[in-house]
Amino acid sequence: MKKERRNDIYEELRNFLEMQAGIPEEWEAEIQAITPDDSFDGLDVIVGHMCDEWGTGDTRECLSMIGADEDEIEKLIEDNFDSCF
After folding, report:
1. Angle, to 10 degrees, between the axis of helix 56-65 and the axis of helix 42-54?
2. Range 54-73 burial, b when 16+ CB lie within 10 A, else e
3. Is 57 left (phi over 0), alpha (psi -120 to 50) or beta?
4. Within 13 Å and on the Cβ side, how many CA atoms surround 32?
5. What is the CB neighbour count within 10 angstroms for residue 39?
6. What's the pLDDT tens digit per position in 9-57?
7. Distances (CA, A) of 1 to 5, 16, 32, 69, 70
8. Could you tell me which of 68, 80, 74, 60 has the C-alpha nearest to residue 9?
9. By the 8 A CB rule, do 16 and 62 touch?
10. Spatial contact of 47 and 17, defined as CB atoms under 8 Å apart
C-alpha cells in the first residue's frame, strides 16, 4: 500500500477513534515513540492494538466504515494481527 494511502487511512482512523472514546494514552505513546528507523508506523500500531483488543471482526468493520477497501483491510490485519509494540 502506498505511503499516501496509508496516511489517509491513518488520519481517518484517528478521527474516528477521537470521535468515539479517544485514542488510548498507551497507543499514543507508542506512536510518538516511532523513529524513522522503525519498520512500522502509527497505522500499524493502531491496527495491531485494535486486533488485539477488539478482535479482527470489529477491526475489519471499523476499517471498512472509514473507507478502507477489502484488500487494504486484509493486508493491514495480516501485517498487524500478531504485532506487539
Report:
1. 130
2. eeeeebbebbeebebeeebb
3. alpha
4. 7
5. 6
6. 999 999 999 999 999 999 999 999 999 999 999 999 999 999 999 999 9
7. 7, 21, 22, 11, 12
8. 68
9. yes
10. no
CA–centroid distance for 2 within its chain: 15
Q: Is 65 helix (H, G, I), strand (E, B) or coil?
A: helix
What pLDDT, on the 0 to 100 scale, is given for residue 64?
98
Question: 78 in helix, strand or coil?
Answer: helix
* Cα dihedral 66, 52, 55, 18 sign: negative
Cell (9 digits) for 49:
492494538
How crowded is residue 30: how many other Cβ atoms within 10 Å of its Cβ?
18
- pTM for the structure as a whole: 0.92
Closest among 69, 71, 76, 1 to 46, alpha carbons compared: 76
